[in-house]
Design brief:
five-stranded antiparallel sheet; Vanillyl_alc_oxidase_C-sub2 (chains A, B); FAD (chains A, B); FAD binding (chains A, B); Uridine Diphospho-n-acetylenolpyruvylglucosamine Reductase, domain 2; homodimer; 19 helices
């Protein structure tokens, strides 16, 4: 039996990710690789965050009677206005979020943080906020990397953050239907721990898994590292309970396969806190897999590897697709070889002899019954070999899995060492994938390499669909004096390239503040009107997460979508 | 290579289904079974439809300049106001629709029928209808059995039916992404014929397949007979172009796996013509299967068969689930044996010897690669046997497939013979399935058997999900003098039982007029407000298919949803 239960970690430190003591510091070899590659004079720890006591946070602008009423709703213990709690809720985990907080800026912190214990308490909090014209930001794990939980007050007098930490229970398991209902504030590891006695798993492991909550998964249409096998959060969720300023809304049929009108659950999924607070959700669960099988393959190029993944998806038997299916480009493969810390010398020499001096590495993990896993791996090997792949055995997959939640810790260390690092992602149809990869990569490099600075971009595919695949870019450069401007410049360049390529502005990071300006290109002006209309029904005062998802009412950027066309 | 291309048939006759010459009349043995079972004095052809020339149709209430403008938009040849065309668009194919038209009542016929050739023409027609306050009904195959295409004029001066017949082209195939884009008026057989040169299939075969259109599939979240394998229309559609009174709306991302906010495509899918006219859609396609494999199993009871299907779905390997997966209850199995016309005597005797005097029969069809089909069938056989099934070989599945589009013809003959017949459907989670089956069946029987009348109900599962299954009820009785009242009585009783059981009001027939009163129980009062708000954004004047999907603004019926709960 595979163990899907993962470590529960304390909630993140105010300036970065998780529990810093769990980070694995970079070795001297890796540091030297970084310094040389990014042409930096130093990668010493010269850029630590300020002391918590030096962080600037604005005054609480709420009237005393508002706080009195909030305390009456949730109990006095569950309303916080102290600086530390407010700083901990001053934003999410994007690189600009961290740059801002590390420099001591938490001026946008919410006026108060409320920790409700029930849906009824959430409802009462919303009613009070409607009455007193206060903005409401829902906070699950606080792991948004697109500004999704920034406590913007918009046109309101104050902003309350509703932290869902106390609503973390398993409510109900229907073993026959294979569904489980949880309160929305439950975090990834606790979901798996609660399902373990039933022998079930949700199978949802985004990199943010240890911090993120079920409500966040649903609110952002999240995808996990094994979503090629288990499905994205939007595939997993069957129904959700939403508390809105207009009342309680149960979205999603209790029955399977209904045709009773539009699927309104898909209005709630991806709504990013702009319609109401998701207080509970029912999700599909499956038995914990009996076993895992690992495979890895080296391809002569990223394009060749992507074509191999497409063939596996299209030509493989129904059980062939691995649950985890990743392909690194040659740059990411090279840095993995250099920084990964495994005994890769022999492997690299072997690939060199086989003619792959700059390989692109694919990692697979099959989860399930041993016989089915073996069959899937065996059949897929045929397709991989036919596509020019060289088998590299199980170790690279196991090694990746071992470190799969540790990426964000590395970012904290890099920032301390004066290295700018950020990620962004998209997805495109197979026909547009190579073009999207090339143009987004070039846009990132061009915008980082101004004034002779060096930069490094590495890319992977982590999700494979019938019609296309995701692309995830990680990029590094020296941290400029104005890191926020540096970040905004890269992000704008990359986003423009994504839109021009006909790809989606986000595959799994969601919209938040950062991608809202591109929603016009994504869903059209009328689509934005539809979104705004739905919001107007459920949140007529506009208090829910203002400034997120729905762009300000300006003309949306125009784009042209290339298409691949053919005749028989 | 399996042939998925099906016969193209002329559009339906005005009083019933398809091309009546293709119906297979009931034999004397079957007629006698019916007469005896329903305790009827006669099943002679005493109830033919009136002559077309005797059908009553109201006057055209449109101003001449409206017709002039419509003709200017589409060309004069593509605007019809003649009685025959109007009668052909006077409603759909529910039993009450047919009873009404067969009796000579087409008073609700639209004032005019417009046949646009392009999305731009649709847009211009809608603009004119907004300006002149005319209701608009979109008509694809006209196969709705829930009143979805009734030309209700609501509070408007007139009603225009937009018939999509001319918009029937394949626009685009993306072989790499395995998607195809069609105009929405293309009918089922033409979809398959257009895909055949590419070696691809949509795999969507509802019983209405030969008449229904792609736009209708999308507008109603339809399910086909092989949807357990290929997926429902909502799984197949990737994007749709909608012309609305507020403008053109492209719903659905061109990219796979986006997280850019709520999936607005799911607002269009299932919107049943109430938001606008779907003019084209992009759908997932797959290679035509190399081969089909058939299986059938007899179970001692419907419950035992349903449990076997659940185990197959939950415990089978990923490739085990057949594309077609049906289970008849003992009544449907008995009538199939009696009416089906195969050599079933020996089979029934064999099952009797094996202890199954009243079996419930399951039919399976696997489609795909020969080796994969064989493996799926072999592995599933283990699960079927363990669940008490007795194999009956491939013939029952082949026989079902041969007649799978002929059911609606039979209804026309039955009505002519004075036999009332109708169908309705639902879906429930596994834990609620037996209770739903029992209570809906009892409600149908009780409401038909008043005044000592006899009735027959037969039921099947045709779609299997991880969390539950569909239930499809077919019921017969003598046609009462007021067949419309008879139908309304049964439908109300069954719908009440469905709501009380915690099942969905419709699994694949959609909402239309008939199920609109139950939408409050299905999606809640706030859900209806959300739907109405979306409609208000796209169709502020409310001209699109008035009276459908969204119930009149009265308090929705209240219901209690039973749940199955357990602890480890």
């Amino acid at each position: 039996m595979v163990i899907h239960v993962t470590d529960e970690v304390p909630r993140s430190v105010w300036y970065g990710w998780g529990d810093p003591s769990r980070g694995k510091p970079l070795g001297s070899h890796a540091l030297e690789f970084l310094r040389r590659t990014l042409k930096l004079g130093s990668v010493a720890q010269n850029h630590p965050p300020v002391e918590l006591s030096d962080v600037r946070v604005g005054p609480v602008t709420l009237a005393d009677d508002v706080l009195t009423q909030l305390r009456a709703i949730t109990g006095a213990d569950h309303v916080a206005t102290d600086a530390t709690t407010r700083i901990l809720h001053a934003g999410g985990k994007s690189t600009p979020d961290l740059i801002r907080r590390r420099s001591g800026d938490a001026l946008d912190a919410p006026d108060a943080v409320v920790f409700p214990g029930t849906a009824e308490e959430v409802r009462a909090v919303l009613a009070l906020c409607v009455q007193r014209k206060l903005a409401v930001v829902t906070f699950g794990g606080g792991t948004s990397v697109v500004g999704g939980v920034e406590p913007l007050r918009g046109r309101f007098a104050g902003v309350i953050t509703v932290d869902m930490a106390r609503m973390d229970k398993l409510l109900h398991v229907d073993s026959l239907a294979r569904t489980a209902t949880f309160e929305a504030g439950i975090r990834g590891p606790a979901i798996e721990a609660a399902l373990a006695p039933y022998g079930m798993t949700l199978g949802h492991f985004p990199q943010s898994h240890q911090e993120a909550t079920l409500g966040g998964y649903v609110a952002t249409r999240s995808a996990g590292q094994a979503s090629t096998g288990y499905g994205r959060s939007n595939d997993l969720v069957k129904s959700a309970h939403l508390e809105t300023p207009a009342g309680a809304f149960d979205a999603g049929s209790p029955a399977p396969g209904t045709a009773a009108g539009p699927k309104l659950l898909d209005v709630v999924v991806g709504s990013e806190g702009t319609l109401g607070v998701i207080t509970s959700a029912t999700v599909k669960v499956v038995p914990v897999p009996a076993q895992k099988v690992y495979g890895s393959w080296a391809f002569p190029s990223f394009e060749a590897g992507a074509e191999a993944l497409r063939r596996l998806k299209h030509d493989g038997a129904r059980g062939d697709m691995p649950h985890v299916c990743r392909l690194s480009d040659t740059d990411e493969t090279a840095s993995t070889f250099k920084l990964g810390g495994w005994k890769t010398g022999a492997l690299a020499r072997y690939l060199g002899i086989r003619g792959q001096k700059t390989p692109a590495m694919a990692l697979f993990v099959w989860e399930g019954d041993a016989r089915e896993n073996r069959a899937g791996k065996r059949r897929s090997a045929k397709i991989m070999r036919a596509a020019g792949g060289i088998s590299m055995g199980p170790l690279p997959g196991k090694s990746w899995e071992h470190g799969r939640f540790s990426g964000p810790y590395l970012r904290d260390e890099l920032l301390t060492r004066g290295v700018y690092v950020e990620t962004l992602e998209t997805a495109a149809t197979w026909g547009l994938l190579a073009g999207t990869y090339a143009s987004v990569r070039a846009a990132i490099l061009d915008s980082l390499q101004i004034n002779g600075a060096a930069a490094y971009v590495q890319t992977h595919i982590s999700h494979v669909y019938s019609d296309g695949a995701s692309l995830y870019f990680t990029f590094l450069s020296g941290l400029e004096a104005d890191g926020l401007a540096q970040n905004a410049r890269v992000k704008a360049a990359a986003s423009g390239a994504i839109v021009a390529a006909g790809a989606t502005i986000t595959h799994h990071h969601a919209v938040g503040i950062d991608h809202a300006p591109y929603m016009g290109a994504e869903i059209g002006a009328l689509g934005i009107k539809v979104l705004a209309g739905i919001k107007n029904t459920l949140d007529p005062e506009g208090i829910m997460n203002p400034g997120k998802l729905i762009p300000p009412t300006t003309a949306p950027p125009v784009t042209t979508s290339p298409t691949t066309k053919e005749t028989p």
